[in-house]
Write a structure and sequence with these properties.
Layout: E1 3-6, H1 13-21, E2 29-33, H2 43-51, E3 56-60, H3 67-75, E4 79-82, H4 87-97, H5 99-108, E5 113-116, H6 118-121, E6 154-156, H7 168-178, E7 184-186, E8 191-196, E9 199-204
Parallel strand pairs: 1-5, 2-3, 2-4, 4-5, 6-7
Antiparallel strand pairs: 1-8, 8-9
Helix pairs in contact: 3-5
Family: Belongs to the peptidase S51 family.
Protein name: Dipeptidase E
Pfam families: Peptidase_S51
């Protein structure tokens, strides 16, 4: 599997995709899963940063994903980007349509996966510890916190405490409350977890 799990800054994306996909004679087709950030003020800025890399962006609303056509859609992509926002809303959107299983299967089969914040969190085994950072009220019908289980750790993004919604005291509360029960991996906003056949390592993304 090839995964790039960002806290926030997308600077590591081009080198990651160059390594996974290589040179193409056409713009790289990047599926953009936007459910987590719907209605949020930062969503358009995040997307603009990804579009600036020059990729062909294919909008995906996981909640509306047609499971019967999911194979055809995923086959048409060179990589997938799961955007930031509300973690529980994202997981609910993926699970309600069955997109979670389809996506996880394709990533395990070789489709490069890029997550940002919420998109990085759902790649792990569960999203439970992030209930201190994101709102369960965004997904009142969600019954199961299990993530895509692509990695063993649970990403704790924004761990440098620089974003106003996630001050250092809150990050520490997450680590203290859940650190003994879950394999938490804090990432600063200028870091990412790079996962490949060679293993996993934290890299710079600034």
């Amino acid at each position: 599997m090839d995964l790039l799990l960002l806290s926030m800054n997308p600077a590591a994306i081009p080198s990651f995709l160059d390594g996974c996909v290589g040179a193409l004679e056409r713009p790289l087709r990047l599926g953009y899963v936007s459910d987590a950030g719907i209605g949020m003020p930062f969503a358009s800025a995040e997307r603009a940063k990804i579009e600036a890399f020059g990729y062909s962006i294919i909008e995906i609303r996981a909640r509306d994903m047609d499971v019967e056509k999911s194979d055809e859609l995923l086959d048409s992509l060179d990589a997938i980007y799961v955007a930031s926002g509300e973690t529980f809303a994202l997981l609910d959107a993926l699970r309600s349509s069955g997109a979670d299983q389809a996506l996880a299967e394709r990533v395990r089969a070789g489709l490069p996966y890029i997550g940002c914040s919420a998109g990085s969190i759902v790649a792990g085994p569960t999203v439970t510890p992030l209930e201190l950072m994101d709102s369960r009220e965004a997904a009142p019908d969600l019954q199961d916190d299990s993530g895509l289980q692509l990695i063993e750790q649970i990403i704790v993004p924004h761990a440098d405490g620089q974003l106003p919604p996630y001050p250092p005291a809150l990050i520490q509360q997450v680590l203290t409350t859940y650190g003994d029960r879950y394999p938490l991996l804090p990432l600063r906003d200028d870091q990412a977890l790079l996962v490949s056949a060679e293993g996993a390592e934290i890299i710079d993304s600034f």
